[in-house]
Amino acid sequence: MSVLISTRRLLAQWVTPENFRSYGQVIFASVDGKSFDAEDAQLSLQNGIPKFYIMRLYENDRKFGKITRHVECTQCLGSLDGKSWLMAVAPPGNSDKPSLEDIVAFRIPGSCFIKLEVGTWHAGPYVEADFVDFYNLELRDTNVVDHFSFDFVKHYNLEFEIV
């Protein structure tokens, strides 16, 4: 017997520092030599060895049934070549699952990057181009020892689609 999976659509809004504050930071270019301040990425990478790398993601259908968080570090993501991209997020918290009502989607321009706060739930990046290269800053073993996911399909017969 097959189980019917419902799809909830999330309308992606353009990211701004104000509307992303509950999830992390939006970082834009600044003048070289500017002193460090609150507009710079406030990183938490002290629980391991940082890993900075470029990952290539290919066009996808913008649907997800799982969401992930990292509780040991912040994570920074940004696209190369000025390409915009999509990301779904929910605020960090003490629960082992995000609230369905708290999940939102953002369209992120290629002129900035985002820093996910420690514990921020996230699905993506999702791309609309054939491929997009991303830089990613996290800990070297984040995806091995600090990768906690919640499965909406398993628990709620639910998936999300970013539109």
Work out the number of β strands: 14
- Helical stretch tally: 3
CATH superfamily: Ureidoglycolate hydrolase
The helix content is under 10%
Q: Largest beta sheet: what is the strand line-up?
A: 3-10-7-12-4
What does this structure look like?
This protein is mainly beta and 163 residues long. The chain has a single domain, classed as Sandwich (Jelly Rolls). The protein is built from three helices and 14 strands. Strands 3-10-7-12-4 form a five-stranded antiparallel beta sheet, with no helix packed on it. The longest helix is centred in the last third of the chain and has 5 residues. The model has no long low-confidence stretch (mean pLDDT 96).
Notable traits:
globular, four-stranded mixed beta sheet, 163 residues, single chain, 14 strands
Structural topology:
Layout: E1 6-10, E2 12-14, H1 17-20, E3 24-28, E4 50-58, E5 63-64, E6 66-69, E7 75-79, E8 85-90, E9 104-108, E10 112-116, E11 121-126, E12 131-139, H2 142-145, E13 148-151, H3 152-156, E14 158-162
Parallel strand pairs: 1-14, 2-9
Antiparallel strand pairs: 3-10, 4-12, 5-14, 6-13, 7-10, 7-12, 8-9, 8-11
Put the structure in a nutshell.
This protein has helices at about 15-20, 140-145, 150-155, and strands at about 5-10, 10-15, 25-30, 50-60, 65, 65-70, 75-80, 85-90, 105-110, 110-115, 120-125, 130-140, 150, 160. The chain has about 160 residues and is mainly beta.
